[in-house]
Amino acid sequence: MEHAFTPLECLLPAAALRACADGGANRLYHITEGSQESFLPDYISGDFDSIQPEVKEYYKVKGCELIETMDQDLTDFTKCLQILQKKIEKKGLQIDVIVTLGGLGGRFDQTMASVETLFHATNITPSPVIVIQECSLIYLLQPGKHKLHVDTGLEGSWCGLIPIGTPCENVTTTGLKWNLTNQVLKFGTLVSTSNTYDNSGTVTIETDKPLLWTMAIKT
User: Fold this and answer.
1) Which of 80, 7, 18, 22 is nearest to 55 (CA)?
2) 91 SS3 class
3) Is 205 helix (H, G, I), strand (E, B) or coil?
4) What digits encode the pLDDT tens for the residues 43-82?
5) How many angstroms separate the CA atoms of 118 and 212, rounded?
6) Residue 18 phi/psi, 5° resolution?
7) CA–CA separation, 41 vs 48, rounded Å?
8) Contacts of 61 (CB under 8 A, 6+ apart)
């Protein structure tokens, strides 16, 4: 069984809603081979240029909703998130977090598109959106102060803070091996990568601009 299957087993059964963005349905279909019916998505959305015909037909027969979205100005991930939020509101669901599995491997432009969707997400949903693939997790921190608990036992050894989109002029942290104090994070100046924790179990981050938090997770 592949490592990528592990978070799926843990997260999907507990999810209030399950969705695939276009070609993500291919991945779901193949890694759940032999037990696809236990991991059916509520809907699959996208322009359907990536989903395999046999996969599309399988989920259609199983009663999964297929929603075609032809807008080429937004990624399938972004459009899927828009639909998800509308369904959350229509059903009156209470959502703690939106977890996305995949989107950080393979083509670099598509990885950056996943990061860009996190910027759109702030205008789409009030729920936090995290992206996980294999041993990596990313989450876009908004301006302000954040407290992260890193003592669950699921954390890997490394973490980082990436100033994507715009420089961060003032970043202060605690709980890291190499902390920042009122420092500028900017490409060409300083980016915090390959950092780790000080064993306090808590990390605080204060930033004046959106800042991408990334960390290792155990799979």
Assistant:
1) 22
2) helix
3) strand
4) 999 999 899 999 999 999 999 999 999 877 899 999 999 9
5) 9
6) -130, 130
7) 15
8) none
DSSP letter, residue 3? T
Residue 211 contacts residue 138 (beta carbons within 8 Å) = no
User: Which pair of structure tokens corresponds to residue 186?
Assistant: 């900017």
CA dist list (Å): 147 to 30, 69, 141, 150, 203: 37, 37, 10, 10, 6
Query: Rounded to whole angstroms, how far apart are CA atoms 147 and 172?
Result: 12
Q: What mean pLDDT do residues 84-111 have?
A: 92
CA angle centred on 127, ends 138 and 85, rounded to 5°: 110
Q: Which two tokens stand for residue 66?
A: 């297929």
CB 145 within 8 A of CB 172: no
CA-based nearest residue to 39, from 9, 80, 65: 9
CA distances 217 to 75, 119, 190, Å, are: 26, 22, 24
Length of the chain: 219
- Cα(112)–Cα(4) distance, rounded to whole angstroms? 20
Cβ(192)–Cβ(185) under 8 Å?
yes
Q: What predicted TM-score, i.e. pTM, was given to this entire model?
A: 0.88
Joined together, the tokens standing for residue 102 give 């995949």
The average confidence (pLDDT) of the chain is 91
Both tokens of 122, joined, read: 């702030």
Buried b (16+ CB within 10 A) or exposed e, 75-100: bbbbbbbbbbbebbeeeeeebeebbb
Report the side by side order of strands in the sheet with 183-185. Answer: 144-149, 202-207, 168-174, 183-185
Residue type, 19: A
Q: Which residues pair with 171 in a beta bridge?
A: 183, 207
